[in-house]
Design brief:
Helix 8 packs antiparallel against helix 10. The N terminus is likely disordered. The protein is of the alpha/beta class. Strand 3 and strand 4 form a beta hairpin.
Amino acid sequence: MLIALYGAISGCSARRLLVDNEGMVIPERSAVIFFVDGVDHTCFDNMLAAGDLPNIEKRFVHGGVTVKNGITSLPPTTYANSTTIITGLFPGHHGITGYRWFDRENLVYHDYGSACTYLDVNRDFSSPTIYDILDSNFTLNVQNHTRRGVDKSIDNQFLSGIDWFRQDFSNVDERVGKCVNRYLIPLALREKEWPTLTMMYFPGVDETGHRAGSDSPRYRRALKTADSAIGRIISEIQAEGLSDRTYYVLLTDHGHVPHDRQKTLDLYNWLNLLTGWRMTKKPKTYDDYADRLAWLSNYDAVYVDGSNRSVMIHFPGKDGWQHRPSPEVLRKRVENFLRPGGKTASLLSHPAIGAVCLRAEPGQACIFTAKGEITVERRVIEGGKFYRISQTREKDIQNMLEYLGYGKGTTAGELADGAWHSSRDWLNASSTAAYPDIVPQIIEMFDSANSGDMAVFANNDWAFSKEVKGDHGSAIRRDMHIILFFAGPDLPSGGSINAARLVDVMPTVLDLLDQNPSDNLKPDGVSIAPALLTAGK
């Protein structure tokens, strides 16, 4: 009845029902996050240049602050990074390492890829969320699956389910664009409060990229639909007189790489042939731990295809699946398949493989490519994290660094001097490299046992399945480079900053909202609000 009543009133051109409502609580500062899943920066930039995204161009490019080199988290997959957005933590610290992942401690396999399980992510991590921190404020989620702690959610599950079945993915995004007048304002009138934080999730662009590729006309149409929806939401909020107190954030969770189906490697079968390992793709989920352990004792590895461009592999320890393998045991198990020129073929000899990474000692990881190997290390100095590249083989180091984009003459290469450098230094120096931010992030990723013992990342436009025409998940720039914009009443128009990470969004939004979280909260991200406020000055 309330929705119908509002529709009748708004049809008579009466507006500002919120600001002019005597009993309505309007926060002094509020934020709306536009989370557009799976935006390919290459396509996005081309469309901006062509004037095909007028609403985003007006509000964010010309009317806000652009993060020129936004970098997502390893692995660049949706559930890993939708959790990062609301926790400010790397996947290796909140524990959700993909839309499929293996819980090493409990020997349980998780898969969010169905209508019955897509919300399970909210019970699978315990880190505080931005909604938990804003618990005394009204918060709202529209369509996003990852929302633990939010006050209210608008999902349209029935209608969205029909659209998904009919593959009308952009129709879901279009409906999100209509939610202000249809749902948000009536909800606010009922609650007598406008949300301090609203998350708007647009899933259609990503799914279109999977089905058609991010180089397709269909993908461009999906981005246009998202642009129109965003423009409508901003316009309707403005019509309610709330623009002078609303911050807007536009972001994505990962890039999207078009896939030539001729460039496909069935990695599971390739590894079976190459190594002879007995692998399982989906461990059986028995109720009893002992039964799960007994079943896994028949296998040498658990293969987790977290996306078609990255795979994580878990191995048992020396004494079985109750333990992780030591770095020495792990390296001995896999090294013969990573070294070219030996008795066996090298995994790295296939053009589909961009990089293979191994967990090493705590605070260490090894990165292998066809050009060589490096070890990266982390140490804590006076409470801050610092990282360096260790030269394991002098003859390999320069070719390897050039392959990663850290060669001589590059800003990233200046940090490849064996000295310790801060996390932000690595971000700023390597944000345009072929493998951006990999030095700190690969170590952070392996902090969680859920990330496996070995990660395999695809090269260029290769994929590990023919099922899709586009995907993401690798460590290369096109997967890791994301759109990231901020706009608001006291942010400069047309400003820009060099680089920021997706983990920075949560602390930045809290800062802009003038919300001071507990001192016990220690996100991986930092607030970039001071940089945003002075961007371009």
